[in-house]
TrEMBL record:
SUPFAM superfamilies: FabD/lysophospholipase-like
Protein name (Swiss-Prot/TrEMBL): Patatin
Entry EC number(s): 3.1.1.-
Database matches in Gene3D superfamilies: Cytosolic phospholipase A2 catalytic domain
Amino acid sequence: MAAAAISTISMIDSNMEVDKLTYEIFSILENKFLFGYDSDPKLSPACRENRNFSTPFAGNKNVPAGKIRILSIDGGGSTNGILAAKSLTHLETTLRRKTGKKNTHIADFFDVVAGSGTGGILATLLFTRGKDGVPLFTAEEALKFLIENNRKISRSSSNGVFRHVFRPPVKVFGKVFGDLTLKETVKAVLIPCYDLTTRSPFLFSRADALEMDGCDFKLADVCGATIADRTVEVKSVDGKRKITAVGGGVTMNNPTAAAITHVLNNKQEFPFANSVEDLLVISLGNGESDSGTGNMTSSPAALVKIAGDGAADMVDQAVSMAFGEFRNNNYVRVQGNEIIVGKKHMIKDEKKRKSIAIAEEMLKQKNVESILFQGKKLMEKTNLEKLEIFAGELIKEEEMRKNSILSPVVLKQSSSSPRTSSATSLSTISSC
């Protein structure tokens, strides 16, 4: 009996070791989001020192610190990134219309972006500084890039259902980014992959790149790593670090929890962010599987797909519940329901049109809210309406900051000394 108990304990320990990332993320979600900082005895000294940073201003409505604006973009999905790209084009167009500023970029209205897989490509395109100081791509240009380079970035399996990267298209990304690195991004950027060398998730982070040796990587390599389904070796710019990467979708298809954790633990850059009421988050999905239930277990690729979609939904459900009463205004999830399409052979232009049409149809669908362990609930508002409302929240936050003497964000520009705590914050994520 004792031996069996020891064996069971050993098995539990083994499983926890394998899934440390999920365990850590949900522990943080539970302790810091649901119950607040006071209930967490494991806060680092730096976090304990800064957790009440905004207390002196709490009763003064004339000096609000503002909310940290987070954009999270899923990898892949049934639209292979097109739904998220279309969501962003609509959001950017809405922001331009409502502000009257024709040159507005997505990056102007967010403080943090996290993107996995094709979401990582979008994040990099939209948040990299160009020669004129503005982001390299508009949302419309990023959408066009994904469509034009779809065959170079990914290909379909023989049954036309699952898409996967067949080789990192570094040349494609090299033409866009050249020798630009993480340091050239305009806001806080987080892009995941999985490092087989350390057997742990790895987050490419702008904050780490600016502050620590061996943490700055070429953006072309970052994009190649986050979408790779075969191992690819990536070296830091200074050659001090090398990772053996596979795509971010393997371990973090929905990076929302990682982005939120990054903000709440990075007091140097986000000193006033103490709880979910201090955040404004939009999470963009890329469409649920259109494979049909009959083929869901027909191949290893199908099982990987199920695992990735399930993990993304679980993150959405946990985050949604963690926001509680702030869920309607402070957290928005855009995701498309299943749309069955024909599997006939199509010419290139026809495929482009169909991909865009599917994404547009998903945006017109009613938004689906995930409820932890209770499935999904169809909401009254469509994805487009949700995006419209969220654009209004972003504009209100931007206007509020113009009248505030406090800045909720103090992004690192350079550093001559090492940080006292990692901005990536999760001890189980491989960090520099």
